């Protein structure tokens, strides 16, 4: 039995980073537009992955960002969970009893180049040979190396604000496992072990970040080069916020469904079915982007890379039947697999 609103207080589970909190504020605003009498409370949840400073694959992968919120949702401690769809793994089954009730209208999906505050660099091409570019994303790494094989990719994780501090050479507060401020995206972290120069992990010539993330933080002015879709194909689910609730909580499900953006759901479905068909793990260099064209026609691009980007499989399919994004996604996965994507994912080596 679910109690109807507004008698009930709606508990919104979110990660704790400034970006996650900005997203929560936005969702809260949208909910209040639906019903000004709604009572909401944001419940920041620190995830295991937030407390870990090392390689995510060492503790169970990207799925940990999602798991802590899902467990709270299952137990009834929160009523809805906010996820960046991009962070929801394609190879982990959905937790029992949970459903994504809404996909919000997609924001900019593109990645951007960010350089130190007073740098004259405008584009990737302007960076000196061997420049150090920070990103922990294997998808970005592979595609950057395709364009500029000389670059040194430094794995930097953590909150966008902290990454920018690192880039700009501002001292960052020492982050510890008991840090009480923000841990979600927090730990600004350059992994010295993975860096080619362990002695100076902090020096970076540039970062690559998501345009949508910068926008949510009011930092869009920091974007220098905005990569074209074809240059750096976005992540599956980029720019999409998904709102999850318990399947049997019909009051919340009905509320959230009003926030669903149908074209975003369609596009996300095509991309996610492709991702699931590839059975990529959390650290696979996979990119995918579906866009709705005139007449509802879908265009889906997918790419799977070797770690250095030198080898890749790619597909670009269009559907005349706008209402079957899952079939389009499955078709794209099959095509990529026939080009040797399995071997790229499993061994990093093309067939
Ligand atoms: N992996 C972290 C993450 N998850 C979602 C976004 C940005 C917003 C989005 O694409 O939904 C980011 C930051 C980034 O990649 O720079």
Automatic annotation (TrEMBL):
Bias (Low complexity): 171-196
Protein known as: Hydroxymethylbilane synthase
Any GO CC annotation of this UniProt entry: cytoplasm
Gene source species: Streptomyces paromomycinus (Streptomyces rimosus subsp. paromomycinus)
Top class in the EC scheme: transferase
Gene it is expressed from: hemC2_1
The enzyme's E.C. designation: 2.5.1.61
Family: Belongs to the HMBS family.
Domain of life: Bacteria
GO terms for biological process, alphabetical: heme biosynthetic process
InterPro entries assigned to the protein according to its UniProt record, in alphabetical order: HemC, Porphobilin_deaminase_cofac_BS, Porphobilin_deaminase_N, Porphobilinogen_deaminase_C, Porphobilinogen_deaminase_C_sf
Protein's job: Tetrapolymerization of the monopyrrole PBG into the hydroxymethylbilane pre-uroporphyrinogen in several discrete steps.
Catalytic activity, reaction form: 4 porphobilinogen + H2O = hydroxymethylbilane + 4 NH4(+)
């Amino acid at each position: 039995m679910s109690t109807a609103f507004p008698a009930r207080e709606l508990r919104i589970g979110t990660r704790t980073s400034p970006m996650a909190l900005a997203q929560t504020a936005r969702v809260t605003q949208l909910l209040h537009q639906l019903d000004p009498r709604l009572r909401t409370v944001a419940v920041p949840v620190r995830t295991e992955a937030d407390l870990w400073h090392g390689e995510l694959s060492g503790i169970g992968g990207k799925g940990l960002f999602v798991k802590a919120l899902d467990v709270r949702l299952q137990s009834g401690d929160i009523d809805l969970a906010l996820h960046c769809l991009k962070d929801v793994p394609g190879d982990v089954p959905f937790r029992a009893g949970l459903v994504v009730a809404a996909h919000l209208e997609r924001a900019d999906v593109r990645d951007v180049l960010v350089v130190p505050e007073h740098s004259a660099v405008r584009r990737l091409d302007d960076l000196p040979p061997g420049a150090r570019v920070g990103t922990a994303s294997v998808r970005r790494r592979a595609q950057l190396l395709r364009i500029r094989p000389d670059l040194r990719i430094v794995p930097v994780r953590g909150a966008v604000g902290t990454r920018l501090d690192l880039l700009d050479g501002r001292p960052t507060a020492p982050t510890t496992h008991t840090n009480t401020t923000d841990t979600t995206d927090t730990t600004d972290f350059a992994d010295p072990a993975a860096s080619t120069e362990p002695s100076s992990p902090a020096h970076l010539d540039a970062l690559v970040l998501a345009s949508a993330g910068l926008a949510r933080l009011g930092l869009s002015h920091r974007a220098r080069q905005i990569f074209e879709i074809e240059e750096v194909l976005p992540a599956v689910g980029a720019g999409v916020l998904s709102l999850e609730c318990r399947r049997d909580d019909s009051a919340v499900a009905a509320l959230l469904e009003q926030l669903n953006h149908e074209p975003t759901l369609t596009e996300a479905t095509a991309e996610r079915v492709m991702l699931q068909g590839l059975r990529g793990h959390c650290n696979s260099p996979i990119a995918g982007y579906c866009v709705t064209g005139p007449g509802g026609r879908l265009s889906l691009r997918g790419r799977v890379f070797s770690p250095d980007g030198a080898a890749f499989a790619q597909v670009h399919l269009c559907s005349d039947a706008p209402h079957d994004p899952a079939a389009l996604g499955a078709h794209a996965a099959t095509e990529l697999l026939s080009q040797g994507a399995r071997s790229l994912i499993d061994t990093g080596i093309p067939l």
